[in-house]
Each structure stands twice: as C-alpha cells, then as structure tokens.
Amino acid sequence: MKFGRKEAGSLVESAAPMNGTACAAVMNEVMEQGDGLHAALIMDGNGRWANARGLPRLAGHRAGVDSVRRVVEAAPDFGISVLTLYAFSADNWRRPPREVSALMRLLGFYLEQETRRLIAQGVRLEAIGRRDRIPAAVAKQLAEAEQRTADGGRLRLRVAIDYSSRHAMVQAAKHAHRIDGEITEEAIARELGPPVDLLIRTSGEQRLSDFLLWESAYAEIVFTERMWPEFTGDDLAQAVKEFHSRSRRFGGVAAASRRSA
Ligand code: FPP
Q1: Alpha carbons 198 and 3: distance in angstroms, whole number
Q2: Percent of the chain with pLDDT over 90
Q3: 95: Cβ below 6 Å to ligand 1?
Q4: Cα–Cα distance between 166 and 172 in angstroms, integer?
Q5: 138 lines ligand 1 (CB under 6 A)
Q6: 3-state per-residue secondary structure call for 8-35
Q7: Does the pLDDT of residue 105 top 60, yes or no?
Q8: In angstroms, rounded to a whole number, what is the distance separating the alpha carbons of residues 134 and 147?
Q9: Ligand 1 midpoint to CA 50 (Å)
Q10: Which of 40, 103, 125, 170 would disulfide-bridge 84, Cβ 3.0–4.6 Å?
Q11: Is 48 touching ligand 1 by the criterion CB < 6 Å?
C-alpha cells in the first residue's frame, strides 16, 4: 500500500476523461511505482440502472456482475494489488426476501462460474464479513473458492458479504483482547486488514454505509455518477488517475511547506 505519491513530473495532470493513450499513461506510471494500491468499491446503482430501463432490480444486479468481471480484470493493470468489493452489507438483509435470495444466488453463480477464471488471472479470492448467516451453500462455495485460488499472486480480491465495518471492529477488538490481553491500534489494524488507499462509490451517492470505516481513515475518496452496471475499466483508470493527482499528507504537511516553516 503506498503512503506517498510522486510529487513532480507526474504523468497524471488532470482528471479529464481518459482515452486509450491516457489509460496507457496510468499504466506506465503504475509500472514505475511498484508498490500496489488497495482500492475499495461501493458498487451502487444496480437498482436505479435497472428501473431506468423498465427492468426488474435483479437485472441490475446481474449486469453488476459483468462490471465485477471487468474491474477484476483491469485492476492489476492500474497498480491495484488489493481490491475490496462491497457485495452485500449486513443492512442489506432489510431488503425484500426475494431480492436477498436472488443476490445470494447471484453470488453463488459468480463463484461457480468465475473461480476457474480467477485462478487463470492469478486472483486470490477472500471473503470478509460474517459467514454464519449466509446460506450454507454459499458459505461452502466461498470456502472452496478461497482454497482453490489461494496461490493467486497478481490480485487479492476481497469480497465483503454480510459485512458491517462496526461489527468487524468490535470483533477485532474482542479478538485482540483475547490474544494480547489488551486492545491496541496495531492489533486492530492487523485483525482488520490493509488500509484503503482509494475508495470509490458509484451512482452519485456520497456516504460510506458502514464499509471499511477504520481502514479508510486516510483513503482518498472518489464519488462517481456512473451507475455500477455501467462502470468500466476506463472508469477505474479515471479514479486511479484522480487518486494520483491528490496530495496525501496523512495529517502532516507537504515537503515544500515543511521547508518554508
Ligand atoms: C447496490 O445497488 C448493490 C448491491 C447491494 C449488490 C451488489 C452486488 C453485485 C454487484 C453483484 C454480485 C457481486 C459479486 C461480487 C459477484 P442497489 O441495489 O442498492 O442500487 P440502487 O441504490 O440503485 O437501488
């Protein structure tokens, strides 16, 4: 996970729409930088996308799976080594039972269809969130996919299912206390996983919805109007480009300001 950014001579100068050349520029910059980014995605807008087309909400979720495929394929090219996708929040149980079952079936379908492709792409899949409330068949498919993709070294794909960041933090604190007899920031950070560099939310909504709250303490946030079913590799490249145009100071000051202090 990078904690700095290239200050000068950046290939990334504006956040204008990208074409193939601009995409290649992001890829060149990424190759020079080495260390990978942790990008996290709140995939929002499936229902609205479907409604706008007179389709049932499920059609939006199905189209959303295609976006997942596109983004997983594109992510490593843009220097992303960890990608966390918000697939089903702990609060999503409040949706109509038919939609919940359809989403669970879709997750199962994705795991069944995609595991072989993930292995070929060097993707290691991992689920975060609770496993005791999702259908047993999906929990089993997740465990199998995790095991079968365990050697993937190109991208760590974390799928958040029945996930609540507040719940994860409480669990992390309890576990830290059980193991170490005390609760420290380091122990919680270790329990939860890598800090987020870039957090993207689609569909124009601008909130975090209980997603990676601790891990996103210093995340750069990009909100895009794009509905999730329409999100492409180019949109991801655009967000990465925006990320590189920001100055990350982690509460400190930029090098130039430090000299003038
Ligand atoms: C939010 O859109 C989306 C979800 C709650 C589900 C996301 C699931 C997928 C993209 C498919 C399965 C995922 C994987 C990883 C295979 P919304 O329904 O809240 O949209 P709305 O705000 O327009 O109603």
Answers
A1: 11
A2: 82
A3: no
A4: 10
A5: no
A6: CCCCCCCCCCCCHHHHHHHHHHHHHHCC
A7: yes
A8: 19
A9: 11
A10: 40
A11: yes
Query: Which of 37, 41, 26, 33 lies closest to 222 in space, CA to CA?
Result: 41
In the residue annotation, 51 being an active-site residue is answered as no
Flag whether pLDDT at 23 surpasses 90.
Answer: no
This prediction's pTM: 0.88
Ligand 1 atom with minimal separation from the 65 CA: 11
Whose CA is closest to atom 3 on ligand 1? 44
User: Is 45 touching ligand 1 by the criterion CB < 6 Å?
Assistant: yes
Ligand 1 close to Cβ of residue 129 (< 6 A): no
2-7+37-244 has which CATH code?
3.40.1180.10
CA of 61 to the centre of ligand 1 (A): 5
b/e map of 171-191 (b: 16 or more CB within 10 Å)?
Answer: ebeeebeeeeeeeeeebbbeb
Average pLDDT, the chain: 89
- Top pLDDT among 117 and 13 is at 117
Find the catalytic residue in 46, 51, 92, 132. 92
